Amino acid sequence: MSVAVFGIDDDDLVCYWGPGARDLFGYDSSAVLSQPGAVLFPDASGGASASCARMLERGRTLGYWRGRLAARHRDGTVFDCGFRVFPVSGAQGRSVVMGLASRSEELDRVKTNLAFLDALFETCPIGLVMLDPDLRYVHLNQALADMDGLPIEAHLGRHMDEIMVMSDGGEYERVLRAVAAGGRPVVGMLVGMRTRGRPDRDQVRSVSFFPLSQAVGSRPGVGGLMVDVTDREQAILEATAGRQRLALLDRAAARIGTTLDVNLTAQELVETVVPGFCDGSVVEVVEWADETELFDPELPLVTRRIASGTILPPPATELVSGAETVTYPPGSVIHEMLRTGRPISAEVKEFLARTVSDEARARLLAESGLSCILVAPLIARGTVQGIAMFGRSAARPPYTQDDLSLAGELASRAAICLDNARLYSRVQDIALTLQRALLPSALATSPYVHMAHRYVPGSRITEVGGDWYDVINLPDDRVVLVVGDVMGHGVPAAAAMGRLRITTKALARHDREPDDLLAELDACAQDAGIELATCLYIVYDPKTGRARIASAGHPPPLVVHPDGRVETIDDVLGVPLGVGGFPFRTTEIELPENATLALYTDGLIEARGRDIEAGLGRLRTELARDQGSLEATADRILENLLPDPPTDDTVLVLARVHRHTTS
User: Fold this and answer.
1) CA angle 562-539-524, nearest 5°?
2) How many CB atoms lie under 10 A from the CB of residue 491?
3) Residues 6 or more apart from 441 whose CB is under 8 A from it?
4) Where are the alpha helices (DSSP H) in 96-135?
5) pLDDT, tens digit, for every residue of 258-294?
6) Which of 193-207, 355-369, 529-543 has the lowest mean pLDDT?
7) In 623-661, which positions are buried (b, 16+ CB within 10 angstroms) versus exposed (e)?
8) Is 583 within 8 Å of 519 (Cβ atoms)?
9) pLDDT tens digits for 588-599?
């Protein structure tokens, strides 16, 4: 708003004319000085104006007068004008009436703006502030003073950092100085802080700042608005944390328990929580003396670490992976957790004092960068399986009650998966132990048959199968070679395999023809409820060099001739044992001196993604290679043909035959 300043002397002549007066009335100083003041009013006549006379008279008699009068511009236009006049004593007793004038509409606008600003500063719930170029408080409203916990007067003239306690390395002040220097406004920036008036309360504010216009007569600096959004941001943070917890549980459900291997299941838990939930984690299983042992808080607890992981640099890596067996003393954090059955958290100092008895481990933990540790019990079906530990560095917030609940849920899910894997491993061990007990510990020997034999169980991902083999001596130096495979896995397959092997050995001693023996074995399989099994039965006579062969659905034997030629004896295939109703047939072949018979089960030639015929072709290729020792050949075949890990049980029997010579 432009303001005209002018002066009229005792003779009612214009004696002072300011720049604003020229802008308002249109007269240059040379055109109006020493002219009657009446020229400024539309009722001027003969150098006099009633409006001008009334304004001057009231100014001289009242000492100050303000009002609105019609005024005239030099171009003849008339406009409503607001005047403020007051007398000023001059030299030699003369006086001058000084006048201030502005267009009435501009005065109204300014009044409205001032009224709005006054109301805004008085009643607005948003913090309003004006800072000078040095970021000192010039003006602020009560709302901002309440946010800061200090009265308005305590702000004025003080620097921003005397009121606000920031921890951003000076970034907030740099932003304000950039705005004060005429930079772009900042809108809706989130700032975390404390104030001198509320030093124990964290606040989050949404701040907007703009450079002041620096109009004529106004102060330079920065204007700003501040809104306390601490509650809103806290709600957002809590909602975000809730979504993150649900996402972590979803990942845990998808990733933990994908196998029935205890160690892999534990490692899946570690990989699920690091780094999304913590900076390092370990899983340990309790080494109970027996399954009936109960937890005694008065005794040390021994655990075995089976999984670990961390994103922290050394020595944290050594800390989580360096120990296999750990002993926790009575009164440890672990004992407290197992006694209550609920997750608990502890600062590293407390954990060190109560739980770590080994000095070297204590030093590693103290230097690891971890600041707090959360421990959760792995309890399934009422049995303590072990413990899971989750560590955080000082860069993360301490564990909350929600974090404890989340860790308990993760540990509970992992414990069920670990227990399933443990039970499966136990069944696997039982089946494998049973199978190995039923397989021959030592094969019968003969001067006319040199042997190399291998049994390879499937990996722990697959159950134990029913593969078996045997060598039986018969009268007249004859030798029986037999290989079989019971369909199925686990303890039932191992038990069925044992029955068939023992029955075969008993029947062989009655010197039955191969086809008759398989027929009797088939009847026994049906009586025992064995639904499907294969068997290859060969009787070798070193006096004639001939072999009599019968098969019950088993892969065909291979004959490696001394010249390296490999022959497949594929005309002996029959139906598997347990089917019943089909006869078996005996085939007789002649074996030259130093020929090698290869007997095997389907685990050697069949694998996922590989056809049986392709596997059989690879086996023929391996057998045709340079014939070294049988032991070396057996090892080479297994190394080149079996997948890693094996997907099924495998038997391989190599028998090099010799003739019986008479002296």
Assistant:
1) 140
2) 18
3) none
4) 104-123
5) 888 889 999 999 999 998 899 999 999 998 766 667 8
6) 193-207
7) beeebeebeebbeebbeebbeeebbbbbbbbbbbbbeee
8) yes
9) 999 999 999 999
Using alpha carbons, select from 391, 376, 417 the residue that is nearest to residue 308.
391
Examine the pLDDT at 461 and tell me if it is beyond 50. no
Tell me the longest C-alpha to C-alpha distance in the chain: 170
With beta carbons less than 8 A apart as the criterion, state whether 138 and 132 touch.
Answer: yes
Token pair 């845990």 is at which residue? 252
Closest alpha carbon to 576 in 517, 535, 613: 535
The tens digit of pLDDT for each residue in 175-193 reads 999 998 888 899 989 888 8
Angle between helices 333-340 and 348-355 (to 10 degrees): 90
Instruction: Output the DSSP codes for 22-64.
Output: HHHH---HHHHTTSBGGGGSTT-BTTB-HHHHHHHHHHHHHS-
Contact indicator for 373, 391 with CB cutoff of 8 Å:
yes
Question: 376, 410 in Cβ contact below 8 A?
Answer: yes
Return the C-alpha torsion angle 636, 640, 643, 646, nearest 10: -20
The model's pTM is 0.51
442: Cβ–Cβ under 8 A, 6 or more apart, which residues? Answer: none
**Encoded tokens for 25:** 């009335």
In the predicted structure, residue 519 carries a pLDDT above the cut 90 = yes
Cα gap 157→174, rounded to integer Å: 19
Q: CA nearest 622: which of 603, 639, 645, 601? A: 639
* Average pLDDT value over all residues in the chain: 87
* Distance, CA of 268 to CA of 255 (rounded, Å): 6
Please enumerate in sequence order all residues whose Cβ is within 8 A of that of 361, keeping only pairs 6 or more positions apart, or say none. 319, 322, 323
Task: Estimate the crossing angle of helix 262-273 against helix 401-438, to 10 degrees.
Answer: 160
Reported as a pLDDT band with limits 50, 70 and 90, residue 296 is confident
Closest CA to 482 of 350, 351, 597, 636: 597
Looking at the predicted structure, is the pLDDT value of residue 88 above 90?
no
Q: Buried b / exposed e across 384-414, counting CB within 10 Å, b at 16+?
A: bbbbbbbbbbeeeeebeeebbebbbbbbebb
Q: Which two tokens stand for residue 258?
A: 């994908």
Check: CB of residue 52 under 8 Å from CB of residue 70.
no
pLDDT tier at 214 (50, 70, 90 boundaries)? Answer: low
Alpha carbons 584 and 410: distance in angstroms, whole number? 58
Closest CA to 560 of 634, 612, 615: 634
Alpha-carbon distances of 298 from 286, 295, 304, 330, 339, rounded to whole Å:
16, 9, 20, 5, 11
- Which residue has 């296999």 as its token pair? 324
The SS3 of residue 513 is coil
The DSSP symbol for 159 reads B
Q: Nearest 5 degrees, angle CA 182-CA 186-CA 190?
A: 145
